[in-house]
Specification:
The structure holds two protein chains of two kinds.
Chain A lengths: L3 E4 L2 E5 L4 E7 L4 E9 L6 E7 L4 E4 L2 E6 L4 E6 L8 E9 L6 E2 L3 E6 L1
Parallel strand pairs in A: 2-11
Antiparallel strand pairs in A: 1-3, 3-8, 4-5, 4-9, 6-7, 7-8, 9-10, 9-11
Chain B lengths: L4 E3 L2 E4 L5 E6 L6 E7 L6 E7 L2 E4 L8 E4 L6 E5 L8 E8 L8 E2 L3 E5 L1
Parallel strand pairs in B: 2-11
Antiparallel strand pairs in B: 1-3, 3-8, 4-5, 4-9, 5-6, 7-8, 9-10, 9-11
Classes of the chains: A mainly beta, B mainly beta.
Chain lengths: ~110, ~110
């Protein structure tokens, strides 16, 4: 089955800095890659996603890049704010499967 | 609009007890998923419903776990004879269509088995 590795497990940055979280996947047939943000006591919330026919996608301060050849994808957050502090999960799923395999999460701490 | 809701939010059970966890998906959402999230881990898939049909239960860890969605809306995850290793957050998610990959998660039920 699919295996998703996520790094780092913890990331501490100063407000205004950029943050980058990286994930690798094992199944070359995976074609959908969502990123979720989970705040304490809440369920994961989709923040951005990318499909395998696209190399990069941007939404305001958040961007995701995908390298299909290397089977890795990354989340980039620019101009970080304290409210960005949360656990971020990457995931990968096969087209039509609808069942994502999640990474272990990255705890992002943004210091004011 | 109302999102996915789950109840109870917290449940403490003694080992051996049965528990039932409820999920109310977003109204009209066809697909419903259950996940188990251990402390410090990502969610792990348990089971998937399309309307009232349980199409995939490959992630259920044992036959003590049972899920149903009899009318295609509310779903219940039941765990019989709970064990300490069942302690986790149980997340429910729904999506609008069968080919819709965006899932909307509820806040989860935190289960502690003593």
């Amino acid at each position: 089955g699919e295996n998703v590795e996520q790094h780092p497990s913890t990331l501490s940055v100063q407000e205004g800095d950029s943050a980058v979280i990286k994930c690798t996947y094992s199944d070359s047939a995976s074609n959908y890659f969502p990123w979720y943000k989970q705040e304490l006591g809440k369920g994961p919330q989709l923040i951005i996603d990318i499909r395998s026919n696209v190399g990069e996608k941007k939404d305001q301060r958040i961007a995701v890049t995908l390298n299909k050849t290397a089977k890795h994808f990354s989340l980039h957050i620019t101009e970080t704010q304290p409210e960005d502090s949360a656990v971020y999960f990457c995931a990968a799923s096969l087209g039509g499967s609808y069942i994502p395999t999640f990474g272990r999460g990255t705890s992002l701490i943004v210091h004011p | 609009g109302a999102g996915v809701s789950q109840s109870p939010r917290y449940k403490v059970a003694k080992r051996g007890q049965d528990v039932a966890l409820r999920c109310d998906p977003i109204s009209g959402h066809v697909s419903l998923f259950w996940y188990q999230q251990a402390l410090g881990q990502g969610p792990e898939f348990l089971t998937y419903f399309q309307n009232e049909a349980q199409l995939d239960k490959s992630g259920l860890p044992s036959d003590r776990f049972f899920a149903e969605r009899p009318e295609g809306s509310v779903s219940t995850l039941k765990i019989q004879r709970t064990q300490q290793e069942d302690s986790a957050v149980y997340l429910c998610a729904s999506s609008l269509r069968t080919n819709q990959e965006t899932q909307y998660f509820g806040p989860g039920t935190r289960l502690l088995v003593l």
